[in-house]
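Tutorial sheet, problem 5. The two components below are modelled jointly, 435 residues in total.
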Amino acid sequence: MAIVNFSPRAASLAKVEKIGQLSGENVQLCMQCGTCSAVCPMAEAMGASTRQVMHWLQLGLTDEVLEARVGEFCAACHTCTVRCPRGIDVARVLEAVRLLPLRQNRDLVRPGELDPEVRKRAPQIALVSAFRKLTA
Amino acid sequence: MTTPSKVSYYPGCTLKTKARNLEESALGALAALGIEVEELPRWNCCGAVFSLADDDLIRHVAPVRDLIRVTQQGATQVVTICSQCYNTLARANLLMREDEEKRKTLNLFMEEEPDYAGEVEVLHYLTLLRERVGWDALREKVKVPLDGLKVATFYGCTLLRPQVVAIDGPNPQVFEDFLRALGATPVPFSAAQECCGAYQGLVHPVEGGRRAATVLESAQRAGAEALVLSCPLCDYNLGARQPEVRAAHSGIEPVPTFYFTQLLAVALGLEPAVCHFELNGEGALKLLEDKEYVAAATA
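Model answer (structure tokens):
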């Protein structure tokens, strides 16, 4: 488990506010029960659990969230949203996390770098959904 | 008896090419059941995923345009077969119905189009079957009962989440009821409502593949002979990529995958050609031939 040295000066409250605006959700409502982490199908791939992400966001630690590449690995399955006992639409929060780099024109996947064989074989729906979620 | 209103049909990006086995079996079955649908003229891609950001209205333009085409066609309902299309269209429709401010902005942006306020009803194919035919009536129309076929019904994510667009309640039975009507035996399995890996199967094949492995293992443990799907993205992860997933995860036996509409077409006695089994993953047609639901091709 990662221990985070918390300094209010390091906190990027502006970015947290941006996440609030993009998602329309209030991360302060989270009570850290961890249900979202327990049900997350991509938890193993992420550098932090969804619960941890919510906590970091409550503290304004967006750099940690971005380093954990949580937005990149989220598959938008909405299980966390459906299960959250506090009624937070967690999928929306993760979409906002994903959008922070995308809005600065930093793509999370480069279509040109996909294996040409895979690109040929993949159905349109896979290409459209991936590029919609992970490119600016 | 009143004449049922016209139903538009929205195919979506994959059904005309890589998922012809989904479209042609679905439309063939509807014709056999006497349900008329009319493909939307000038439809465009719905975007495949519903945009969740509050300020990202431009991404709702595509699905909303499709819904406007439905009204222009003189229909009140639109049916779609792909789970992702269903989710995206249904959520965009709700947004236009319920969010006055965003509705206003989107209508102003699309000033060349008539104003839209969510008047259309978006249906998934299973819902259309349940409402227009009903499971008892469907059972009577079955010519080739799929007796003895143990099927794992994979709902995945977008038919059920979020709840506002779910095609069934919290303990969904619609897929199971459908398969029972065809004579098949649905086997409950723990991963039925889990994620197949979605677009992660494309961009992060290893991590996405773990999802597919979990689903395949779960279906295998439940004793399923086949996995039934309603989404071309699920089929990519669980069908097309199955050999890779099996190679990376030991102990998973091959599980043929079918679109639910293929099993419907077979049960209704349609020509197997309409099902395009050549587009399915390994072992699909062979399973149906072994079970003698379709005649084995003579060499």
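Marking note: DSSP finds 13 helices and eight strands in chain B. Full credit if you identified this.
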